[in-house]
């Protein structure tokens, strides 16, 4: 990340005071790369075509300019902006974010999605709104009923456009775009840019500014770093982090958070759980920073929590682990962060906690850095117990190997051996040593496993690591096929294996990794069979339904 880029603040982007206040309150310290690039042209009214996945900060990249440009009084009833998103969850998430950013402006934001009683939405629309965040199907319903008027629309955003197309919303999107005034601004974000999107872009965007996140050259400096990621729901993140720290036992770890608030909350949570964590803030004096660093160096703390801004210029030799508590907003930020370990020939570990929706961002990072990020399962309670016992065993062995003065204790063993079996005596001693080794109390709750993965070839837990060669997920000579149906449609790995073996004449072992997402699945097949498999699957149904079948089109973004 170039320093001059890094120095750009939200204030430099000339945002309204009310928005700057909201961002400060949310603890956002600086714009993410997509925000830096997208906000100025969108504020100016330009159309925009942005390739960015969840986790890049794309929501604020379109939400802030919309809020910046809103200029109307509360008597205005028809919306000025329409944001179209593929799912109900995203509709809620985006409208919540817009509501937060626009608090100081009293912006009226309404999420509109299927599944919610239409009457509630009708009433809210009648009262008047500034921004509607809708799924395409429900937006069309309202348009046809005459309850959603698009004649005052100044900006239309298509968020996750590729997913909307995959979900069969192409016609709805066309109809909505046709219904909005021609003079409106159009902003389109998509994680991938499939050819199918080109037609829509040509028809509806006017000389768009084009942004690809992660286009910058990322010189990979982090080859010695073992990179893993864990897919965890937001609510389980603190527990997951604790579990990983217990298993990994870092000498010193730097944990990156997105916001200052997150740094503070997490530091408190970790300290409450018995870890020794220190927060590093951008606003700290050099003296305060030195104090924190000294605590780390002297072993009085082993975790340092910081935002990217606060960690700038930090160089700590003894770091063994870098943790991304959230997926970084760009591949550059990722590389920059993990470059803090693995220095001077030492090995380091980089751990990323990703929410299920963020797995695409992980892939983007992999493509750009040309390095694998292995998705693993959060260690189970049994894994943790085994690991803790292993530490006790190692401690005992060390004490046996040292020329330790054990005579003193041998007497105790001899006395006890008169009444008990020596094995039992030893086991009781191990138990005591184990309990006394203390450390943070193990979190005995299992952490939900929500990997977008299957039981075949997918990211595996520790136990399976030896059985399945690393890198199986994208094996050489294999190509992934995208199937537009996933968990929500009840798809299981065996349905896919069944369809492929029955229809395309492959045998089970020809098929590589399978990943099942909520709404799509990916299956690896040998490169030579791809076309045959695609043709065969297109001619059949999966779980009784036709699904989109194609080569997975994710390609490394062009340089
Ligand atoms: P998105 O890619 O829009 O889904 O955003 C991912 C996450 O990053 C959300 O939790 C946002 O609240 C957060 N976020 C967005 N922009 C920033 C920023 N400039 N600084 C810190 N966090 C941010």
Automatic annotation (TrEMBL):
Its EC number is 3.6.4.13. Residues 39-211 form the Helicase ATP-binding domain. One of its GO terms (cellular component) is cytosol. Residues 8-36 form the DEAD-box RNA helicase Q domain. It catalyses: ATP + H2O = ADP + phosphate + H(+). Residues 457-475 have a biased composition (Basic and acidic residues). SUPFAM superfamilies: P-loop containing nucleoside triphosphate hydrolases. Keywords: ATP-binding, Cytoplasm, Helicase, Hydrolase, Nucleotide-binding, Stress response. InterPro entries: DbpA/CsdA_RNA-bd_dom, DEAD/DEAH_box_helicase_dom, DEAD/DEAH_RhlB, DEAD_box_RNA_helicase, DeaD_dimer, Helicase_ATP-bd, Helicase_C-like, Nucleotide-bd_a/b_plait_sf. GO terms for molecular function: ATP binding; hydrolase activity; RNA binding; RNA helicase activity. It is an enzyme of class 3 (hydrolase). It holds the Pfam family DEAD. It comes from the Bacteria. Residues 436-476 are annotated as: Disordered. The keyword Ligase does not apply. SMART domains: DEXDc (SM00487), HELICc (SM00490). Residues 240-385 form the Helicase C-terminal domain. PANTHER family: ATP-DEPENDENT RNA HELICASE DBPA (PTHR47959:SF1), ATP-DEPENDENT RNA HELICASE RHLE-RELATED (PTHR47959). Belongs to the DEAD box helicase family. This is RNA helicase.
